[in-house]
Structure formats: C-alpha cells, structure tokens
Automatic annotation (TrEMBL):
Protein name in UniProt: Ionotropic glutamate receptor L-glutamate and glycine-binding domain-containing protein
UniProt record similarity statement: Belongs to the glutamate-gated ion channel (TC 1.A.10.1) family.
Localization in the cell: Cell membrane
BP term (GO), one: detection of stimulus involved in sensory perception
Amino acid sequence: MSPSHHLYVLDDRTYQGKINMLVHVVRQKYGKSSILVDHFYPEPKITFKASSFCSGKDHSFVEAGAFSYTRRGIQRHLSPDIFRPLEDRYSNFNGRELLVKANNNAPFHGLKKLESGAFIPDSGIDVSVVNALSETLNFTWRVETPRDGKWGGPLPDGTVSGMIGEIARREGHFAICEITITGLRETVVDFSSPYYFESLIIVTLAPPEKNRAFAIFSPFTMQVWLCIAVSTLLIGPVLRLETIVMKSYMEERNGDEKFDYSTNNFSFNAFRSLVVQSNLLQAKYWPHRFIFIFWYLFCFYISALYSGTLTAVLVTPTFEKPIDYLTDIPEAVKSQGYSLGVIGDSAFEELFKSAKEGIYEEIWTLFNHKERSKSFFSYPDQGFDQLVKGKFIFVNSQMGSKIRAIRKGLNKFHFSRQTFYPQGYGIACNSGSPFRMKFNDM
C-alpha cells in the first residue's frame, strides 16, 4: 500500500474474553473503500470506530458506522448510519487547523507579534474561550489580524469592513475579539450564542480640584448669597419705617427721643449681628424687639451653616463637576471645549450613527466628522492616548476601559456613573457555518 493511501484503523472488540475482531482496515484509494476483516467471532451486529492515521502523528477514534454478520458471511459495506447528523460530524475536527481573525485587544484577545510579522495568541478571555473549544473539539488554530485593523460591519456602499468582512468573504473560519452581536452584522455572518455581557461607559480624565481662591463663598450658592445681601440691606429701612410709625403713635406720651434710630444705625447694627458681633442698639418699642428676635435667629442659623460648611470645604478637597451621564456630553462639548471619540466602524459608532432622535442622535452630531481620525479610532488604546492630552470624552466598553486605566494609572481617569447600551459578545462564523451549533453547545 503506497504512502499516499489513507488508512483508517478500527478499534478491536472482545467477546466473552476472546478476540472478536482482531483488526479491521478500510483502504481508501481512488475514491473507493473496502473492508478487510481477520479472525472474526460471530456477533449479531458490530459497531466500530475509525480515524485517519498518519505515520509519526497521533490519531484518535471517531464513530464511522456499523456492519452486520450473517451466516453467509460479512456484508462488505457500511450501513447507512455512516451518514451521521451534521452536528455530530463536527464533534471532532481530527486536528484540523482553523484560521481565526482577531485584533490585539487586551483583556479579550491579546496578541504577540513575532519577528516574522505573524501574530500568536498571548492571553485574554477570548484566547481562553478558543483554547477550551480547540481542546474539546480537537482542532488547532492560528490567528491573523484583519487587513484594515477594524472590527467592521456592512457599509452603506455594500462592502463589509474589518473582521466581519473577512469572515463574510470566508477568508477565515471565525472571528472572536470582543465582537458585539448586532442585527446589521447578522445579515452577513452567523453569531454563536453570546459568551460575555457588558455595557458602554463614558471615560474622561479625573476632574481637577476646584480653585480655592474664592473658597469663602463656596458654602452658599449665588442665590443664597443674594438673599442674605438683600435681607441685610432691607432690615435697616424696615426698622426705620417701623420707628417712624411708632413715634407718631407714642409721641404724646413720651418725651424727647434719647436713642438714635436712624436708618444707618439700624443697618449697621443688623450687619454687626450677622457677623456675630454684639448689638449696641436698644430696642425701645415692642415691634423692634419682635423683629430683632427673628433677625437674631436668622443670623444664628446663617452663621452656623456658613462656619460648618466652610470647615468641610477647606478640609475636604472639591472637584469640578465630572461627566457622569449621556446628557452631560452636549454641554461639555459645546460649553467646555471637550472633544468626543469612539471606536470607528464598530457597533459603538453604529449605535450613535443609526439613531434618528434622542440623546444618541444629538451626540452623533458632536463627533468630528470632517477629521474622522480625531474622533474615530481603530483601537481603544488610541482613545486613551487622546484622553491624557486634555479635554476629551471616550465612549468605550466597560471592562476594557478599566483594564487600560489600571495600566496607565486608575486615579487619572473618571468613569461615568451611568452605563448604557447592554451588549453581548459572540463568535462570528461564516454564514451557514456547520460548526456554529457545536460552539453554542460548549
């Protein structure tokens, strides 16, 4: 038998401790097969397993079919169950090598570049997923990056970019690299069941500490300060007017006025009370005393609130208002000079691009569409490089952003309180891929 022939070695079976089938060989040549049998003891039906065999390489057994024994001898053909269900046929790839498309995208799919320019898997969630699949389904794999370096998807001109495009054109067996399952992408590729779920988050530089040059005014808002100023200015004239009324009423029963009840004196003593100094004004009339009681209470509460809040402000550093919600982005871009970025040709860009109304549509108009390279990046690392340069907002996946922030210094970045757009990541397979269901079963 020449070396070019394919051998299929079948397992031995025993019957009551005796060899039932010593050896069975299926010889395949010119597209035809035959069964050779030696030393056979009768049994109603024998099921055997076969595997491809190459000299110097390991082989494994897979179920191939069954044949029957009769008094006339062995039927030298396989029964119809050799045509196994398609899902069973891909339970074992028999060491076949699959081509996987991925980007260098830690913590999901880290790649290591060799001197030859090729990439090998390094570490990450997706690498662990593929390794588990390859071990279970018995295949090997190698990885290639997409030519345009993008995640990709269908474009308006009818082409398909990135990893999705190369899988759609069957330039690889499947792609796995934090790929969001979307309805648009499912028009050109088939996705496995999602293996990871997360949401998007807004990343900015950590807000700077507020300037304390005007910290003495920070305990109250501008509206409160305005109310205090108006109350202080009005208390003098109000007391003076009340004095005039009382003097006209009490003038016949009282002699010369011994106290200075001018507007200036009232205003000055009201201010003294506000800044926690003694009051030198004597209240002769009971309306004065009534008004002064409420004024003293007002001054006490204002003084207590101010001193307590000021102490807290000086002890605890305060920071500028961070960007915590999607609704904060338009104001930050329009009023504070921020720029906005996201991964280009991705599900993240498509989220804003396809919006017809609401906050997503409003945010889409804030990207730099004239110079796309300033708002739409090929890799998340480019977005983080832009973040450290200044006022920049980067919309990205939650876990990937936090891992990159840890590498660069977690305290340098701020993550929004709001997360949005829950999404699932799946394995993108060729349309009609026969082994996609096996991936789902894993």
